[in-house]
Amino acid sequence: MPPDSVAPRRTPAERRRWLALVSLCIGQLMIVLDATIVNVALPSIQTSLHFSPASLAWVVNGYFIAFGGLLLLMGRLGDLVGRRRVFLSGLAAFSAASLLCGLAPTGELLVLARFAQGMAAAAVSAMVLAILVTLFPTPRQTARAMSVYACVASAGGAIGLLLGGVLTAALSWHWIFFVNLPIGVAALVLGFALIPVHVGSGLRHGVDVLGAVLVTAAPSLAIYTILQASENGWTTMRTLLLGVGAVVLGASFVAVETRVRTPLMPLRVFRSRQVTGANLVRALFPVGLFGSLYLGALYLQNVLGYDSLHTGLAFLPQSLAIGTFSMFVTGRLVARFSAKATLIPGLLLVAAGLALFARMPVGASYVVDILPVTLLIGIGAGLVFMPSVALAMAGARPEDTGVASGLANVSLQIGAALGVAVLAGVSTGHVRSLLADGVPARVALASGYHLALVVAVGCLLAATAIGALVLRGAPRAAAVALGRAEVSLGAD
To answer: What is the C-alpha separation between 291 and 452, in angstroms, rounded?
Structure first.
């Protein structure tokens, strides 16, 4: 056995390094937990804080928008002011925002606190892998550390669903946020003591703050437009003006990025057909994945009468399938066939699961109706994450690898936020119409969820078409190597 595989692990420096990894993994676990733990508590939150069906989506989207919109900025800040400083600041801010979420007395304050959580999550997530690869410089060390990190991150989704159900059923929805406090404090103490200081290059090199504001504001306004249109109508003057405002903000972001000295997102990366196509796939795909969790939790509790604990258990097979395939199966399939040949069947499996979900009866049976849906979506998602990021990065020039990786993450988060908004808007509008016609509430809700899921199927089929027609295959070995870090996003 090579000397570096045994001897260095006995030195104090190596033990310190692995303890520092514990801090990084705890931080990532906290971020992953928060992406899934909220879903099973949504009906309880809606009842407690009097959210309307459409505005409830902000509990999820406030987190996703801030997370996705600020990932690139936080990555840049880490380079400029120090990765350790940004990571620890993110942990402290996330813990504080979690406390505010748990204490929120109104829906508006909860959504604001969720935005704050998303901002802090971006700081933590953007730094984890950057610190990890500096702590473990040799290929063997990096691979071993990445395996531990991926295992923890993949397990986080399943833990979040279970923990969310247990805490909501045994205590209240407030505790799904309070649970972050001891986790955050533990990660802070370990990180402060063990993560080495990194001195950044200084703010004089420039930060594209305006770009970060615009890339967060544009999807926020677009989502607000979608959600209020479901209540007030798509052709009202208010909706049209809001839509124009969202387009103007998006165009302003593009204009800023073409002129600023250090752009947050260099637009040259979109000259690559591969990068553009892969990121379109990654933006459309989470409409189905996160839409199934969002609508699924509401369906199981509002239509089938499940409590929060049984809802978490119902979706546990989906998270386990994502983690299992991401870690143990997908890499081998990519190595044998190709990233593209693995991606397309994965997208089709998710679409098939959503199509079955869209036909689920009001009196559904778990084994016959729900379990097959969770397995199809889970297996399909497990086949999509790693190949999609590998394809996106394979199309980037060497000097743009970091930007391409960040863009792949942003596409996923913003796609999830816009997707949940669209599905919530479609569902809410249809339910309102049916209730006005005298349709029973449970039937109306089921029909609204079904229509939204049909829209999600359409998004997955569009992603499949783009993947088949636009993307080229990435080299197999490179695809596996580039996709290792993406395992964690299966739970995000």
So the answer is: 9
What count of other Cβ atoms lies within 10 Å of the Cβ of residue 36?
Answer: 25
How far apart CA 222 and CA 458 sit, in angstroms, is: 20
Is 460:285 a contact under the CB 8 Å cutoff?
yes
Cα 230 from chain centroid? 24
Nearest to 347 by CA among 310, 388, 316: 388
**Per-position DSSP letters for 121-140, written without gaps between them:** HHHHHHHHHHHHHHHS-SHH
Do 59 and 42 touch, CB atoms closer than 8 A? yes
Cα 253 to Cα 415: distance, rounded to the nearest angstrom: 17
State how far the Cα of 132 lies from the Cα of 83, in Å rounded to an integer.
11
Residues 385, 391, 395, 397: is their CA dihedral positive or negative?
A: positive
Closest C-alpha to 35, from 490, 467, 454, 390 = 490
**pTM (2 decimals)?**
0.81
Task: Specify whether the CB–CB gap between 362 and 446 falls below 8 A.
Answer: yes
Task: Report d(CA 163, CA 208) in Å as an integer.
Answer: 38
Residue type for position 213: V
pLDDT of 464: 95
Q: What band does 466 get if pLDDT is binned at 50, 70 and 90?
A: very high
CA 226 vs CA 262, 425, 474: distances in Å? 32, 6, 36
> Which pair of tokens denotes residue 482?
């580039």
Q: What ranges in 199-338 are assigned the alpha helix state H?
A: 209-232, 237-259, 273-298, 308-314, 316-324, 330-336
- Alpha helices, DSSP H only, in 395-475? 401-436, 441-469
User: Higher model confidence: residue 88 or residue 53?
Assistant: 88
Q: In whole angstroms, what is the distance from residue 243 CA to residue 223 CA? A: 9
**Which is nearest to 406 in space by CA: 31, 68, 25, 24?**
68
- 158 band by pLDDT with thresholds 50, 70 and 90: low
Residues 440, 442, 443, 446, CA torsion sign: positive
Helical residues (DSSP H) of 136-208, grouped into ranges: 139-170, 175-178, 180-194
Asked if the model's pLDDT at residue 256 lies above 80, the reply is yes
Report pLDDT digits (tens) over 76-97. 787 778 888 888 999 999 999 9
Tokens of 150: 């991926």
Calpha distance 300→336 (Å, rounded): 39
Tokens representing residue 249 in the block: 């903000």
Show Cβ contacts of residue 213 under 8 Å, excluding neighbours closer than 6 positions: none
Residue 425 CA, chain-centre distance (Å), reads: 20
Buried/exposed code over 169-192 (b: 16+ C-beta within 10 A; e: otherwise): beebbbbbbbbbbebbebbbebbe
